Amino acid sequence: MRTYFDLSGDGGSGILAQVEAQRREIAAALAGVRRLVAVASGTGGVGKSTLTMGLAQALRRRGGEVAILDADFNGPTQARLAGLEATPWLPDGRGLALPRRRDGIGVVSLGSVLAAAAPMEFRALARGDGHVWRATREFTLLGQLLAAVAWGALDVLLVDLPPGAERTVHYAEYLAGCGPEVAFVLVTIPSDLSRGVVARSITALRATPCRLLGYVENMAGYRCRGCGEVRPLFPAATIPLDAPLLGAVPFDPELAALCDRGWPAAAPEAAGAGVAAALDALDDVAGSLLPALETAR
Amino acid sequence: MRFLCVACDEPMKLAEAGPPDGGGSLTAVFACARCGHRIAMLTNPWETEMVTSLGIRIGPAGEAEAGASRCPFSGVVRELEAEAEAGADGVAWTAAALARLENIPEFVRPMARQGVEHYARSHGHSEIDERVLDEARQRFGM
C-alpha cells in the first residue's frame, strides 16, 4: 500500500494551492516595499509600540516613505499613537486605502476599527478552545492585512509585533516568506529581567532567515528636571546582548503624556528638554538603522 | 491529509464538501476514481476550526471560482456582513461602491463597511456611491 509521500496532489481540496496563492497576493501587495522591519520585544511594557512610532517619525523626517502595520492584534495601540482612532478603513480601487497621519506616515491598526476596550474576537465553531486555533487565525489575519492594504511605494514598513520571545520567532518565520527582505529590531529596557528575554530572542532569531539589525534600549534613564542630569531608572544590567546597540532612548513623562494624545508631529515649542532628548535619541536610532539596513547580509 | 483507496491503492479525490453543521462539523466526501468507492470525512469542531483558521475555501476544485464557496469561514463573515447591513440605518450602497468594497478581504470587509456607513450617516449621506468613498478618503487624507 502506498504511503503519504508516494501520492501527489491534495485530492482536489486545493488547500496547499490556496495557501500558496495567499503568499503570492502578499508578495504582490508588498512589491513596492523596500524593507520590512519588524519591531519586537521579549516582554511587554518596554515601550515597543511608542518606540516604533517614534522611529517611523524619525525615518520620515529623513525623507523616507514609512508606514506601520500594528500586528499586535490583541493590544493595538498604534491607532491611538497615530491619532487615527476615529479614522475608518476605506476601500480604494484594489483593497484598503492606507490610512495616513498628517505627517504622511501610514498606519494600519485594528485600534482604528475596534471599539475602545473591545477585545479582538473571532467567531468560532469550537467554543472554549481558542488556544488551539487562535494563533493560526491571527497569522491569517496578518496575511490578509498585508495583502489587502494598498501600501504603495515605501522605503520601510515597520511591523509592530506583539511581545514574547516565542512569538518573535513565529513572526520571523512567517514574514520571511512575504517578499521583501525582513529585518528585526528588538526593544528592551535596561533591566536584566527584560534583557534576559531579549537575549533568548536574539539566539532564536539567528536561526531564522531574517536579519537582526540590533536592539534599542528604551527608558534608558530620565532627565532630572531639577539638575538636568540623566539618571538611571533601573539598576545597572549585567546580562550581555549579542547584537549591536542601535541606540538608547531616555524616558520622559512629558513625552509619555503627549503619546497618550497621539504622537506629536514635532516636539511642541513648549516641550521640555526631556522630550527633545528623547526625540534626538530616536533620530540617532534612525541614523544607525539606515546604514544597517543597506549593509548586505 | 490524503486519502487512499486501499483496494485500488489509488489516491481518492474530493467529490463534495458541505459547510459545517450547527455543531461545527464539516463533511467532505472523497471518491476513488478507479472503483468509485466513496468515504465521508467528518471533522470535529476543533478540526474544522484549524482548517478554516487558514482562511481558505474547501470544496472540489473550481467551485470557489464558480462562486459556490463552501468555506465555513466565509459563512462566518457573511454573518458579520449581515449584521453590518442590519445596522446600516437605511444607508444604501450603489453597485459601483459595493464593488470597491468587495475588493477588500472578507474578514476586514465588515469593519470597512461599518466605518464607511458611519461616515456616511454622520455626513448626511443616504446613499454610498463612489463619490462618497472618494470624499471620505480625501477627508481622512488617504
Task: List the uncertain runs of chain A.
Answer: none
Q: Strand content of the residues of chain B, in percent?
A: 15-25%
Helix content of chain B: 25-40%
- Major sheet of chain A, described briefly? 8 strands, mixed
Determine the mean pLDDT of chain B. 78
Question: Would you kindly provide a brief summary of this structure?
Answer:
Chain A has 297 residues and is an alpha/beta fold.
Report on this structure.
The complex is a heterodimer of chains A (297) and B (142). Chain A has helices at residues 15-29, 48-61, 78-82, 130-148, 165-175, 192-205, 253-260, 273-294; strands at residues 33-41, 66-70, 106-108, 154-160, 181-188, 211-223, 230-231, 245-251. Chain A has 297 residues and is of the alpha/beta class. In chain A, strands 1, 2, 3, 4, 5, 6, 7 and 8 form an eight-stranded mixed β-sheet that branches. In chain A, helix 1 (15-29) packs across helix 4 and helix 5 (165-175) packs parallel to helix 6. Chain A is globular. In chain B, helix 2 (72-86) packs parallel to helix 4. Chain B has five helices and six strands; from the N terminus they run E-E-E-E-H-H-E-H-H-E-H. In chain B, the strands form two sheets. A four-stranded antiparallel β-sheet of chain B has the order 1-2-3-4, with no helix packed on it. With 142 residues, chain B is an alpha+beta fold. The relative contact order of chain B is 0.10. The radius of gyration of chain B is 21 Å and the shape is elongated. At the A-B interface, helix 1 and helix 4 of A face strand 2, helix 1, helix 2, helix 4 and helix 5 of B.
Features:
heterodimer, A: 297 residues, alpha/beta, 8 strands, 36% helix, 18% strand, globular, B: 142 residues, alpha+beta, two-stranded parallel ribbon, 5 helices, 6 strands
Record the SSE blueprint:
The complex is a heterodimer of chains A (297) and B (142).
Chain A: H1 15-29, E1 33-41, H2 48-61, E2 66-70, H3 78-82, E3 106-108, H4 130-148, E4 154-160, H5 165-175, E5 181-188, H6 192-205, E6 211-223, E7 230-231, E8 245-251, H7 253-260, H8 273-294
Parallel strand pairs in A: 1-4, 1-5, 2-3, 2-4, 5-6, 6-8
Antiparallel strand pairs in A: 6-7
Chain B: E1 4-5, E2 10-17, E3 27-32, E4 38-42, H1 45-52, H2 72-86, E5 92-93, H3 95-102, H4 109-122, E6 127-128, H5 130-139
Parallel strand pairs in B: 5-6
Antiparallel strand pairs in B: 1-2, 2-3, 3-4
Helix pairs in contact in B: 2-4
